[in-house]
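Slide 14.
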Amino acid sequence: MLRSNTLLAVKYLAVDLALSVLYFPVWWYTQGMARAGAYCAGTVGNAARSFGVRHWLKNLFKPMFGQYDIAGRIISFFMRLAMMLYYSVVLLVLSVIMLALFLAWLAIPVFIGYNFFVQFIGVIKTARP
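Slide 15: predicted structure.
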């Protein structure tokens, strides 16, 4: 009885392990890719909301601190323009970084598989007499 239960447990674990290994690439390029894409897009979206570029643009021609004279309007315009440009560049850099991370997510299994087979072939070549 003990032997059959142990054998059943080993069979179950072996089948579960084999199916998990086979399902991993499918998960990586379906659900995992969707999660990684949502994370990257969410990070960029949250940064865009945090920087408030639309808010800067909406108030571009309004004077800051109630300074309605010409100097206050000019200073406010160029200050907001500079802030918009700065935050836009930072957002662009963040977008490029998130895109690179997403592409790295897609390339990691291919890279690992390629290196595994290169090493495997190297072992086979050195094992021959």
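Speaker note: The two ends are 48 Å apart (CA to CA).
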